[in-house]
Fold this protein.
Amino acid sequence: MVQTVKNITVSEKDIDGLNHVNNSVYLNYLEHGREAWYIENAGYSYDDFHKANLGTAVLRIDILYKKEALLHDKLRVMTRPKKLGNTSFVFEQKILNEKDEEVCVATVSKVMIDFTTRKSRPVIEEIARNFKKN
C-alpha cells in the first residue's frame, strides 16, 4: 500500500475567529491529499477522471480533531489506502504538524461513479491495484 504526502502551509484564509484553522478547512486539506494520492499512485488527475467520464464521491468522513493548527504552520497530509470494495474504497488520512504531532486523523469512504449514469461502478484498476486485497 502506497502512502502519499502533501505539504500545506496554513494561510490567512484558513484561519477563523479563534485564530486557528477552521474545522471545515481540514476537509479541504484532506481533499488535496487525496488528489495528490490519485495523481501519484493511480496516475489520474481530476482532468483525467473527467476525460474518462468517471469520478469519485465522498460517502462518509470520520474525522477527529486532535491539535490546533495556526497561521503559517507547515502541515503534512498523509494519505494511504485502507480498504477496497467493489464500487467503493476507503482512505486513512492524517495531518501532522512540523513536530510530527497529529493535528487530525480521518477515515474517508469514497465511491466510484460514472458521470453519465450518475451511478456507482466498479473501482478502476488504476486505483484498485494500490489496495491490499482483503
User: Anything to note?
Assistant: Residues 4-128 form a domain with the Thiol Ester Dehydrase; Chain A fold (CATH 3.10.129.10). The chain has one domain: 4-128. The CA atoms of residues 63 and 106 lie 4 Å apart.
